[in-house]
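Shipment paperwork, digital attachment
Item: protein structure file
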Amino acid sequence: QVQLVESGGGLVQAGASLQLSCAVSGRTISSFVIGWFRQAPEKEREFIASIRRNGIGADYVDSVKGRFTISRDTSKNTVYLQMNSLKPEDTAFYYCATSDGGGGARPEGYNFWGRGTQVTVSS
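Attachment content:
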């Protein structure tokens, strides 16, 4: 059984940084495409970033390019999302998810999800 646990969220001011962690158990993270999504109140779940099985390639939504970085530590079986220059519009519940397929930007492409962590950015 694959389980994902996110951590690292919190309340910060605009311009600050946060690093989210996604600890995966049950399978090695190298066997998945792993993605980060977020969902703000009354909005659909939005793709943010994903990292490929080789740990080298990554994809980002345009709104976070240059500010967010996805990475992983295979020794800890953990994926990270470093978020810099945070903006109030980044406020949302952040989720990580695994894909046995190609991943992509749609939530339907992912098999297992964590419960999420809240990020709130004040202006």
